[in-house]
């Protein structure tokens, strides 16, 4: 049989240069020549080697070998065999086959991954596992949390497994460790609380039923032998929204045609009381129940709260606001509001903190209602924007429309028993009316029980509210006080003077006499005690403090619409009776602060500065 010249040359070349047979074999395998083919690597045969079971990190003493054979079954010498461990290190990663075609690896030091590790021999495209070892994990050193995204609905049994893993120092799972599970947070319950780790080192609690509170709930896993511990946290999602509850602003009393003081707030909750956000809420006034702004809102993601913008009442005595949601069919909540008959002047009372006892708060309500009987008309509605703490410490930031008067009330310790018992006055006024828009009423909680026992608490609070309205406090900006700082100051308003003249009196000086003695904040800010005796707005408390027509007239002089017929019966005493035995002087009971107003175009105006030298000398 003849061969072509090219084929002969290839055979001769390959025989003469056996070291490079791989390349020749490649050519021969794909060549088109005929005749006896060159030797090519065909099989890689491992020497028999048992699968070892060894500890992590062991350096194997017995080293594997493989034999490379050609297509005729003959060993092929001088071929590089590459050795690749699945884990760990090999002393030399390649070695040459000997005359029999056999190559031996260097020492294999096993890696730190437990389970089956292999050492693979390769010659060109041929490969074979030369040796395998089952590597056991090292001693357990800790527990780690496997389940990091456990999520379910409150009150339900989790479908997501809650698992932990016992690990050796390399992080390999350690089987047959007994793990104790226990509830840690969330008031849920578990079953199967003692579990052995499986072949992968993992222990899974039997079941976990979440408690009723949404948020994070936790179970704890312990290995009591090593003291190892870890936690599994679950995110408990609220159950479906099923109810609306009142948070604030229900059952208020307001005036026809005006906004309610507090915009109602409700919360969307599930059956367990968890707040649910992102629920569309509709606020709908009932028949004859006025109008609302921002009637459609979405509940707050944090607490499920939803607030209507403002609720402006109509004239009906009882009005309703119905809360529903297209996302919560069948659920609804009805809020109510009442229109106070005959009240024209709005007072929105806001307590700061946990101010006062119910009886003390009742005194505030009584005082507000007393002045509302006297002030017969609306003052002004305007927008109030104030930074927090501008007027007094603890004042919240404000940006809202105020109908007549926004009254902050703080009942807290001021200076202990005695001396100051209260302090009150305006912080901001409506413009252009100049009437109080926002004011503060502070009562010293250390004095109030004594005053209540003396029967003067209601009088005191009514007196202080008079200062908030402007008595003795807006006299300077309204220019109705003369002779301030002298021993004969007097009020110059025409209405008060007219009412003073209508009441029989023997006063020979210039009416209306204002206090010209006493502590700062008492003088120049009250009626003269020696003339007015126990009248409401002189500077000493008494069990009976009638609100005279003169006081009501003085409010008209400030700009209020008043009804003098609602004043209390009052007559001036003879000078012989002009004294009291249980009186408490109202020391420094006039709030000293800057009084600001905002013009219609939003410009801020300082109407009256703090520490007015006429009051504070
Ligand atoms: Zn006073």
Q: Would you give an account of this structure?
A:
The chain is α+β, with helices and mostly antiparallel strands and 617 residues long. The chain folds into four domains: 39-50 and 58-131, Immunoglobulins (Immunoglobulin-like); 142-237, Immunoglobulins (Immunoglobulin-like, Sandwich); 243-339, Immunoglobulin-like (Sandwich); 347-608, no CATH class. Helix content is 14%, strand content 33%. The radius of gyration is 46 Å and the shape is rod-shaped. Bound molecules: zinc ion. Zinc ion is lined by residues 463, 467, 526, 539, 586, 589.
Please, how many helices?
A: 8
Largest sheet: 6 strands, mixed
Estimated share of beta-strand residues: 25-35%
Counted beta strands:
40
What is the end-to-end distance?
A: 136 Å
Which distinct ligands sit in these coordinates? zinc ion
Summed over residues and divided by their number, the pLDDT gives a mean of 89
Helix share, percent? 10-25%
Low-confidence stretches: 1-33
Shape: rod-shaped
Structural class: alpha+beta
Structural domain count: 4
How would you name the oligomeric state of the polypeptide chains in this document? Answer: single chain
- Rg, please? 46 Å
In short:
The protein is built from 8 helices and 40 strands.
Topology at a glance:
Elements: H1 5-16, H2 21-30, E1 41-46, E2 52-55, E3 65-70, E4 80-85, E5 89-90, E6 94-96, E7 102-104, E8 108-109, E9 115-123, E10 126-136, E11 142-145, E12 150-153, E13 163-167, E14 178-185, E15 189-191, E16 194-196, E17 202-204, E18 207-209, E19 215-223, E20 228-237, E21 243-248, E22 252-254, E23 265-269, E24 280-285, E25 291-292, E26 296-298, E27 305-307, E28 311-312, E29 318-324, E30 333-339, E31 347-351, H3 358-374, E32 381-386, E33 398-403, E34 405-412, E35 422-429, E36 436-444, H4 445-453, H5 457-469, E37 481-482, E38 490-491, H6 494-502, H7 529-532, H8 549-558, E39 595-598, E40 604-608
Parallel strand pairs: 2-10, 12-20, 22-30, 31-34, 34-36, 35-39
Antiparallel strand pairs: 1-3, 3-7, 4-6, 4-9, 5-8, 9-10, 11-13, 13-17, 14-16, 14-19, 15-18, 19-20, 21-23, 23-27, 24-26, 24-29, 25-28, 29-30, 32-33, 35-36, 37-38, 39-40
The protein binds zinc ion (ZN).
Zinc ion binds at residues 463, 467, 526, 539, 586, 589.
